Amino acid sequence: MLLDFPQLVKTFLSALPDRDFPVLDSRLFFSCWLALIMDKSTVSMQDLFKRLNHTGIPVDISTFSKACKSRSLQMFEQLYRDLLARVRRELPVKQLHPCPIDSTVVGLTSKLLWAQSYHQVKLLACLEHGSGATEGSLINFGYDHDSNFVNEMLQAIPENGVGIFDRGFAGLEYLKSSQASSKYFLMRIPSNYKLTFEGNAGQMRVGTGKESGMYRVVNFCDIENRAEYRLVTNLPAEGECFVSDEEVMELYRQRWQIELLWKFLKMHLKLKRLMTKNENGIRMQLYVTLIAHLLLELVAVPKMWGSQRLDKLRYLQCCMCKEISYVHWLGKLLGSRRRRVWSLKLCANVY
């Protein structure tokens, strides 16, 4: 059952400690991060902290920045895992369902990061179509090719899921490891791979030399875009669990869902604009972005607003505007001990 936002906050955020640090406790720290990610009226740290400072919350940017650099990621990782487990439980999927796997890259423009040889950060995920769960999310700093993460992403494919890979993950040696895996997969291969019929019904030899192997290959063309698609899969071509070529094609079409997820994260949850200039802080932002996505999957909003991620985000934005900021709203919902002090300071500023 989906929950409304106050219930979600009380269920998942009430466990965050609010007395572990004298100025910026963990609950307030996470609230600031969530405000930076989800509040569409906040475009920078200066926007958020000016608003907080003038409404009774005495936290400055330098304190927040130091916390981003020095604090552990454990709180964010645990919250992400808890939300992921809740999404799996509340949003069941079909017996055999597509799980597109892909990566997105965010460029790093800070000279401080370039001095450490950090030029980009890559986020990889397996999106469970139907529930919206982002399984096996990986964060990589550097230029490592997607194919280097095939084994990790295979492990992320949930039970009864079909991992759908694009050409960036293709490679003859990785096809072998995928074939040996117990997980179902569907991988597009480049058109320059040699395909040879060798008499085995329903299978073809892909590639040449020692790395070549026998696989089920499904070919189809997109006449409108003049594109050829060659798909290698270990889905059964016969028996009780038979998956037809047409069904394989339709499964591959669902790969586009993860591209839509990246677009949403970058356009509406500010993934394309990194707020901090250190590796630890960037990892925090990526985790909070994924946490915000899972919250939107779980939250229930009035039907008149719609049911898509963006519809839910707009509804929460409307509700948040009544509470000054997400930080104030979360403090009100969680009954923070600091909230009474904030209210007194706000009243003093007004009068």
From TrEMBL:
<dbReference type="GO" id="GO:0006313">
    <property type="term" value="P:DNA transposition"/>
</dbReference>
<dbReference type="InterPro" id="IPR012337">
    <property type="entry name" value="RNaseH-like_sf"/>
</dbReference>
<keyword id="KW-0233">DNA recombination</keyword>
<comment type="similarity">
    <text>Belongs to the transposase 11 family.</text>
</comment>
<keyword id="KW-0815">Transposition</keyword>
<feature type="domain" description="Transposase IS4-like">
    <location>
        <begin position="101"/>
        <end position="295"/>
    </location>
</feature>
<dbReference type="GO" id="GO:0003677">
    <property type="term" value="F:DNA binding"/>
</dbReference>
<keyword id="KW-0238">DNA-binding</keyword>
<protein>
    <submittedName>
        <fullName>Gll1195 protein</fullName>
    </submittedName>
</protein>
<dbReference type="Pfam" id="PF01609">
    <property type="entry name" value="DDE_Tnp_1"/>
</dbReference>
<dbReference type="InterPro" id="IPR047952">
    <property type="entry name" value="Transpos_IS4"/>
</dbReference>
<dbReference type="InterPro" id="IPR002559">
    <property type="entry name" value="Transposase_11"/>
</dbReference>
<dbReference type="GO" id="GO:0004803">
    <property type="term" value="F:transposase activity"/>
</dbReference>
